[in-house]
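Regression test case RT-17, inverse folding.

Input:
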């Protein structure tokens, strides 16, 4: 019988190294051209956002800065309004209380939001139920939050005062609404909502196996949370703190609605100089100071996040 043998493959001549290099070089150049086209496409997609940002933010801030340098009567350029603002003890004291209020609100909001954010990050069913509820207050303007605080904390008609008086906990109504405690409570309410939303997403990216490994080695849940979870959530904490700080510093609606006899927020001074005292250029200079403060905090947070990410990548 004839033995069936597989056909022999003809030996292919070796590809010269010069030809192989040219083929590899052509593929590399094609890949680079495709990457450049994709980058160009995504950059073009950002043009509408850049245009809108420049139209509604950069251009008005530029005009605000130019007008703050011009004398209200003569039109000459000078720094007199900045000198007057920094030399005014009342403005500087109010600016200090504004910064202190924003710092305390950001710190308190982060501390109160961390447990809830951790719970939502680890419980999917609870997160699916709670997150839509948390999203609703984020869409509410500060005016609605101010009215809610009035209905809750008003001295005579507020729900909280009525309940505490009815239970005998208070002997007289608590007058905290139209003072710094009322403003702080309103800011903390909105800050907790923002911090919970931001920190939940960050904590979801933290691998639970790291916590389980620490527990398996003898650590309890609470030290594991402080030693492992919180350090890994630092980028989210920094981002949420900067967002809350800048929103409080630049806030206007809540201070106007819950203001007492002495303004604790610098936005009220800017409003008074612009609308009541008819000193618009002084108000422009003070608005630029607040804007630079908010931009500086945001830039500092971004710088810290970049350094933190670079150090994490090196590790």
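Golden output:
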């Amino acid at each position: 019988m004839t033995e069936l043998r597989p056909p022999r493959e003809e030996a292919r001549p070796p590809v010269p190294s010069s030809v192989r290099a040219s083929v590899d070089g052509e593929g590399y150049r094609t890949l680079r051209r495709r990457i450049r086209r994709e980058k160009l496409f995504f950059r073009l997609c950002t043009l509408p956002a850049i245009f809108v940002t420049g139209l509604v933010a950069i251009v008005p801030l530029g005009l605000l800065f130019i007008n703050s340098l011009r004398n209200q009567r003569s039109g000459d350029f000078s720094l007199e309004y900045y000198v007057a603002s920094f030399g005014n003890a009342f403005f500087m004291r109010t600016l200090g209380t504004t910064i202190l209020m924003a710092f305390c609100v950001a710190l308190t909001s982060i501390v109160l939001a961390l447990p809830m954010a951790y719970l939502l990050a680890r419980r999917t069913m609870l997160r699916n139920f709670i997150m839509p509820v948390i999203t609703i207050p984020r869409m509410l303007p500060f005016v609605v939050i101010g009215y809610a605080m009035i209905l809750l904390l008003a001295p005579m008609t507020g729900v909280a005062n009525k309940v505490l008086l009815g239970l005998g906990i208070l002997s007289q109504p608590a007058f905290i609404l139209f003072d710094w405690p009322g403003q702080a409570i309103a800011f903390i309410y909105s800050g907790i909502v923002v911090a919970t939303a931001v920190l939940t997403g960050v904590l979801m990216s933290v691998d639970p196996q790291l916590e389980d490994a620490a527990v398996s080695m003898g650590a309890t849940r609470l030290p594991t949370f402080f030693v492992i979870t919180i350090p890994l959530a630092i980028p989210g904490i920094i981002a949420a703190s900067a967002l809350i700080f800048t929103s409080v510093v630049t806030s206007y609606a809540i201070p106007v609605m819950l203001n007492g006899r002495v303004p604790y927020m610098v936005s009220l001074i800017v409003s008074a100089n612009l609308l009541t005292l008819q000193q618009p250029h002084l108000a422009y200079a003070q608005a630029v100071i607040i804007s630079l403060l908010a931009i500086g905090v945001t830039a500092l947070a971004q710088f810290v996040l970049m350094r933190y990410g670079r150090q994490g990548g090196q590790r």
